[in-house]
Amino acid sequence: MHDELLTIGRFARLCRLSVKQLRHYDETGLLAPALVDAGSGYRYYAPEQARDALTIALLREMDLPLAVIARALAAEPEHRAEILRAERDRLAERISRDQARLGMLERLAEGGLPGYEVTLGREPERGLAVVRAVCAPAEIGRTVGECLGRLLTVLGEAGIAWEPPLCGLYPLDLAERTAIALGARTPHGQGVPGLEFEALPGGPVAETVHVGPYAQLPLAYHALFAAVHERGLRPSAPVRETYLVGPGEAPQEELMTRLAIPVQESTA
Hints:
Layout: E1 6-7, H1 8-15, H2 19-27, E2 35-36, E3 43-45, H3 50-61, H4 66-74, H5 77-111, E4 119-123, E5 126-135, H6 140-158, E6 163-170, E7 178-185, E8 196-200, E9 203-211, H7 217-230, E10 233-235, E11 239-245, E12 256-265
Antiparallel strand pairs: 1-3, 2-3, 4-9, 5-7, 5-8, 6-7, 6-11, 9-12, 10-12, 11-12
Helix pairs in contact: 4-5
């Protein structure tokens, strides 16, 4: 049987893996050798294991976690495709976040920290018909889009003409799971079946306006929170984003978003 098997060194070269990698894959249960010599402890691999080994090497090159690779190898072809599509979607989301970071770095490199004018104003009381969701910070953009679809669908089916602009509500701190809401003003502040009603109290706010892609909103938040703390003010939730010019009205570079944080004089 040894004549039909390959030593770990030959098998590693055949599959473009290192001996160390093969040993690690054996220890983690990802790819066990066909035979381990009881006396010497040498590992031997069968030629037909090369396909799995090459698949592991390919997926590791794509930075897939070993646990995901193990599930993909053990799965039936149809389920394996689902696993790989899920990883594709995660990679696409990560690339999108990286592109957003790249855009912010380019903006900072060209002009330093953007100069946002932060002013103190007063927000009137208002009521919003809202949809709520909970998501990870990295999923906020996609989740807001889903909330928008739900919100407009319910309003449309109810025959209620909402009053633009739309408003997003966010906590001060973006936790691992963040509760957000998207709302619209309805005539006379009426509630809508299928939606929740959010009564926002009036009061002083610190505010600024961001022009550009939503992915670069952190630049505006940086300026806004810095100004709040420099002025000795105490911020409170919810943070309000008012979408003055939305994606259907202008290109990304011309989107306009008003950010407002309710504030109080600090007692510290």
